[in-house]
Amino acid sequence: MDLETKVKKMGLGHEQGFGAPCLKCKDKCEGFELHFWRKICRNCKCGQEEHDILTSNEEDRKVGKLFEDTKYTTLIAKLKNDGIPMYKRNVMILTNPVPAKKNISINTVTYEWAPPVQNQTLARQYMQMLPKEKQPVAGSEGAQYRKKQLAKQLPAHDQDPSKCHELSPSEVKQMEQFVKKYKNEALGVGDVKLPGEVETSAAGKSKVKNGDRGTSAAVGAMEDKPPDQKSSQYSCYCCKQNMKEGDPAVYAERAGYDKLWHPACFVCCTCSELLVDMIYFWKNGNLYCGRHYCDSEKPRCAGCDELIFSNEYTQAEGQNWHLKHFCCFDCDCVLAGEIYVMVKDNPVCKPCYVKNHAATCQGCHNAIDPEVQRVAYNNFNWHATQECFLCSCCSKCLIGQKFMPVEGMVFCSVECKKKMMS
């Protein structure tokens, strides 16, 4: 690939959402500008998911690629012009007549995603059992929540090597093998049914497996309960509370038909967020979102947010880093062998810390070097020196002495305080 082609390819990715406002920083951000490799905005340092970027087409491509070469190909369609798999999201539109003074108007509610079930009443019940702020109604807080979780739970760079920063051929091969493995062993999509229907499905599966010898032990245990307990024979695998037979339940094929979840309980075991579009990863008896499943299998670079497939990487401050990505969060200089200070879980080089983050001394009004001792009280700071930490009235050194603070001033005695305040 020549330099011009490479620059163009990089540019396309970096033009995505350019200038979009930040929903978190509001006017403080000049608009979204993607960092060269960090997956964050260069202006405000927030993630792409925090910006108002209209990326439904990109999201559908990403999920379409995730389902490619899996048993979930019925959920995707390949475009004729480029053959790229696209996610066929199930959009649900509900129309409700609303009485008015003179005539009846129609109130339309569009869900940007809904369970792909034939029974719309069941899909509507499912939506009503989700928290209001998480229902993906177009233009609502819930739609924004879904969009954010799609970006967070299913990062494109966890499945597509072309979305990663400068992988070696060996790393590309390892990543492709890793993706193929989790598609075969862990990836699934939840299904919405009534508990009785799940029981029937389980019985059918068991008969196919065992001939006509009967159902599985778990399903058999359900059937053995007396009729008066029928309403409480099902319990949620997550919260352990009873499930009503007439309410929709979510089941995950990889978990087995004996496990059911309330719609609002179908969450990742690590982040406790609702599994977006019911896309789950099953491992050791637990549901994971895509991000946290991958985190349980591979180290993730705290700098670029990508999984690490190289044997050589560094660990610092309880996190993992590509060697080339252990850099200052402010200026991107490499920190190997350099003094750095952690600021909000991000490493910052000493010059950037002094310039952008260091506390200011109340005595000399200069920045306090991170390697020197200081005195801190509430939000005020002083160099711990005879020249700076002094009584604001008589200039007596207060190091090792009792003092009386008044806003940004300190006093050695009541007399000095009174004299100064008068």
UniProtKB/TrEMBL annotation:
Domain LIM zinc-binding, first and last residues per copy: 234-297, 299-359
UniProt key word Transit peptide: no
Region Disordered, residue ranges: 133-166, 201-231
GO molecular function: zinc ion binding
Annotated ranges, domain PET: 92-199
Keywords attached to this entry: Cell junction, Cytoplasm, LIM domain, Metal-binding, Repeat, Zinc
Basic and acidic residues biased stretches: 155-166
SUPFAM superfamilies in the record: Glucocorticoid receptor-like (DNA-binding domain)
Subcellular location: Cell junction, Focal adhesion; Cytoplasm
InterPro entries membership: LIM1_Testin (IPR034958), LIM2_Testin (IPR034959), LIM3_Testin (IPR034960), PET_domain (IPR010442), PET_testin (IPR033724), Pk/Esn/Tes (IPR047120), Znf_LIM (IPR001781)
Any Pfam family the entry gives: LIM
Family the UniProt entry places it in: Belongs to the prickle / espinas / testin family.
Name this polypeptide is given: Testin
Organism for this UniProt entry: Limosa lapponica baueri
